[in-house]
Automatic annotation (TrEMBL):
It holds the Pfam family Glycos_transf_1. Keywords: Glycosyltransferase, Membrane, Transferase, Transmembrane, Transmembrane helix. It comes from Plebeiibacterium sediminum. This is Glycosyltransferase. The chain crosses the membrane at residues 88-107.
């Protein structure tokens, strides 16, 4: 007998150009083949790439655009009107809304989401309350966070780990170009520790390796600070900052090495994207990075703030095309096999269909 379709709402505070927001839309697209899906956005902030994705994939969406109290009531009414069976949320504010408003609206299955291996103390308290008393499950996209918070009085029985997925393009064959292009994509926030990244680039240059260029793509509060660091380290001719380009995938295609110096992560969408574009990766050992990047197989894993070690790893890859090529192919194989859309979809369907 064919299973009856369920009415599923995916709730997001907004749809800025972040990894969680992208995963929310990918989930909406893939689940729409099996159930009745709609997306509710609590604030009318939608990045142009996400808007294009919504339009291209005909994802039903409702944008709430009023005051806080108006939006809370509108969310309640929408959940009732759509006879919502399952409510899935992403990130802190969404989890609170999912637990409280979802409960009040009579939604049977309420699924929160934690996308980082580190939560600020006040957020941890609220997440624990939502997880233990309001939400049916919490999906962690990383094993490190799930393990940590299961030891911090989060109900273990309600924790589910489903890693992010990625759609891989065709394997990219790279040439041994004269200029080695190093790339980082991420918000300009303290978490990403761009100062260590720039110090590492400076150390590489000081070793007499001048055939490099480092591109930082993103947006955020530290934009001017990062520019000042570039000047202080005399890296103007080696480093470029690009703010929210429309052709971000072209930068992955042109890149030679991917660099991430984060202080904490869940599972990194940008590292996954880099791997899908056949890039060797130099990353810090935070979150689930070591599950993505296998040391000396598809890149290097270094300690946080280890500018010297990161510089040495970059130098090794810069000077060895065959290693870069092999590591890039290994990145592609790992991401294609272990983080496919099919696996991602099936894990969510298990929860939804058995709820």
């Amino acid at each position: 007998m064919k299973k009856q379709k369920k009415n599923i709402c995916i709730l997001s505070k907004d749809l800025v150009a972040g990894g969680a927001e992208k995963q929310a839309l990918m989930l909406a697209k893939t689940l729409n083949e099996y159930h009745n899906i709609y997306v509710i956005v609590f604030k009318n902030i939608i990045h142009h790439r996400n808007l294009r994705y919504i339009e291209e994939n005909n994802i039903p969406i409702k944008v709430l655009n009023g005051s806080l109290f108006f939006n809370l009531f509108a969310l309640f009414k929408a959940l009732k009107a759509y006879h919502t069976d399952v409510l899935i949320s992403y990130l802190f504010k969404g989890n609170v809304l999912c637990g409280v408003i979802g409960f009040l609206a009579g939604v049977k299955v309420r699924i929160g989401g934690v996308r980082n291996a580190f939560l600020k103390p006040h957020k941890e308290i609220f997440e624990r309350v939502m997880h233990n008393h309001f939400n049916t499950y919490t999906i962690f996209n990383n094993l490190s966070g799930a393990a940590l918070y299961s030891r911090r009085k989060f109900n273990k029985e309600k924790i589910v780990v489903i890693p992010n997925c990625i759609i891989s393009p065709a394997l990219i064959e790279r040439k041994d170009d004269k200029i080695v292009e190093i790339l980082t994509v991420g918000r300009f926030v303290p978490q990403k520790d761009y100062l260590t990244a720039l110090k590492s680039i400076s150390l590489v240059v000081k070793k007499g390796i001048n055939n490099i260029h480092y591109t930082i793509i993103g947006w955020g509060e530290l934009k001017d600070t990062i520019r000042s660091w570039i000047v202080e380290l005399q890296l103007e001719q080696y480093v470029s900052i690009v703010i929210n380009p429309t052709n971000i995938l072209d930068y992955y295609k042109r890149a030679t090495i991917y660099l991430s110096t984060s202080l904490f992560e869940g599972i990194s969408n940008t590292i996954m994207e880099a791997m899908s574009y056949s890039l060797p990766c130099v990353v810090t050992d935070v979150g689930d990075n070591s599950r993505l990047v296998k040391n000396e197989l598809n890149g290097f894993i270094l300690k946080m703030k280890d500018a010297d070690g990161i510089a040495d790893a970059l130098q090794t890859l810069i000077l060895n095309f065959d290693m870069r090529d092999a590591y890039g192919r290994n990145s592609y194989q790992i991401i294609s096999q272990e983080y496919s859309v099919e696996r991602f979809t099936n894990e969510y369907l298990k929860i939804i269909d058995n709820a």
